[in-house]
Amino acid sequence: MLHLNGIYKVFNEGTPDEKLALQNLQLQLKKGEFVTVIGSNGAGKSTLMNMVSGKILPDAGEVLIDGQKVSGVEEHQRAKLIGRVFQDPMAGTAPHMTIEENMAIAYGRTNRRGLRFGVTNKRKAFFKESLETLHLGLENRMTAKVGLLSGGERQALSLLMATFTNPKILLLDEHTAALDPSRAELVTQLTKEIVEQSKLTTLMVTHNMQQAIDLGDSLIMMDKGQIIFEARGEEKRALTVEKLLNEFQRIKGEKMNNDRAVLA
Amino acid sequence: MFTAVFNSFESGMIYAIMALGVYLTFRILDFPDLTVEGSFVTGASVAAIMIVNGYSPIIATLAALGAGFLAGILTGLLHTKGKVNPLLSGILVMIALYSINLRIMGTSNIPLLSQKTLLTNIQDAWAKTGIDDVLNGLLTAIGLGDSLPKTWSILLMMLVITVLIQVGMSVFLKTEIGLAIRATGDNEAMVKSFSAHTGNMKVLGLAISNALVAFSGALIAQYNGFSDIGMGIGMIVIGLASVIIGEAIFGAKTIVRATLAVIGGSLIYHFVVTLALRVDFLQTGDVKLITALIVIGALLLPLITEGRKVKARKKKRLMELQFDHKSLEEGK
Known about the structure:
CATH topology of chain B: ABC transporter involved in vitamin B12 uptake, BtuC
Shape of chain B: globular
Number of helices of chain A: 9
Distance between the termini of chain A: 44 Å
Strand order of the largest sheet of chain B: 1-2
Strand content of chain B: under 5%
Number of strands of chain B: 2
InterPro entries (chain B): ABC_transp_permease (IPR001851)
Pfam family, one (chain B): BPD_transp_2
Distance between the termini of chain B: 70 Å
Transmembrane segments (chain B): 12-29, 58-78, 85-104, 152-173, 203-223, 229-251, 258-277, 289-307
Shape of chain A: globular
Number of helices of chain B: 13
CATH class of chain B: Mainly Alpha
Strand content of chain A: 15-25%
Radius of gyration of chain A: 20 Å
Strand order of the largest sheet of chain A: 6-7-8-3-9-10
Membrane topology (chain B): Multi-pass membrane protein
CATH architecture of chain A: 3-Layer(aba) Sandwich
Subcellular location (chain B): Cell membrane
Structural class of chain B: mainly alpha
Largest interface: A-B, 35 and 22 residues
CATH superfamily of chain A: P-loop containing nucleotide triphosphate hydrolases
Number of domains of chain B: 1
CATH architecture of chain B: Orthogonal Bundle
Oligomer: heterodimer
Structural class of chain A: alpha/beta
Largest sheet of chain B: 2 strands, antiparallel
Helix content of chain B: over 70%
């Protein structure tokens, strides 16, 4: 469903601030696969997400979604295929518009916008039905401005808006990181339910190792713009935080030894 | 006195269309668009030169609307494609339009007093209906008979046109495209992630806004009987004054209410300025100072009333809570 082939991305090339954000990155997601991505700051996780969403374009390599080459397609065009939830709970919704108006905008993701009314009775019923699955009571507040909702409610709404039109790819960018533990737990649970139910092909970045282990079918670890560790299927299920840390140490250590060998 | 107030409502109605345009950019798109100062005159110039050259006033006014639309597109493209700062894009197009407006008119002032305009046509048609006599009769009956307005047609026609535009705008802002335009002003990254072309939304919003502004300019030229190169100066502040006064007094909870408030704000602004200018001490040149004071007043008013409201609400709720607590204790 999602293929990234030989992606290179360099920022500030030729200056002292040069940063090799992605180096020959290869990644494949099968249809319905849920992959979690971990890695330290600056490992290239966000660059990877922006590469898929089209916010940044690769210097070399190609991105394919559902067999369709999208490397050169602009972000807003590509968004037809991609649902995205950001880290900031304020980022995924328009605060001065009502819940139903926000949902109408999300609903318009897949088709061309015209001069039809955004919120019709038929759509309202559908929005209400979708909101009920969140169990937050938002279905009774559909004409409330989204700015009045709490961070957790807004993030749950963002998640719903990103997913209820069944995107080909779902991108989750540390979407629980800015929430308190109980809200984060709630949104994590919702994520699990929604992804399972709609069988969405999902790429999720997180800083929380436990979350990365609990969720998804596969896990990848990134460092310095490369994927340094990959666990799929049975291997993924057997992972623990401790094992993961050890693995990270081992790989880093090996690398350091290699560097030493080169320098010596 | 009555005539002056009556006239202030007439011009307030026409300027309200301009204010609705300003509302669209300033509030909905969150784009401080200074093109208005130029496009207002462009509308007046296009309408005036076409009327003088014998075109039908209706066609001339619609052409003015189109010219404003183009001016808005220009500012929009400069900002979205050229990545020029919003304020600067507006200023650049505004300054460019000054020369263009001079070219359109060929001179700095075109009188229309001897011409058939949209407004004189309406007056003539209206005069035949005899409704003026009925309304003036009513005024005389309530004791205002000493200074009767010449015609009611302009006020009523403008009321109809302005309200039609207000309704059209409210409906448009609830369509799929309208929602996308509103979201572009509210959270651009969000609406982009839902596959809307935010650049196009901005261009469209600016184009509609400036079309309304130019339309208003064309009507003002016909109302005042001339088009002048300097008639756009301070227009953005008058537009903002209407928007801010309207919001302060009538609120802006929903789109319908906010757009109605803009019309109300425009009427009140022109009413207050008319009243102020009748004070002996003040001169015509003081208009800008009065405008600034009105806007400052409208900006400070909500701060004061809102603070009071919150205080009263808190006090009431606290008393309820204390009462509940007391009765609970007594219940024990």
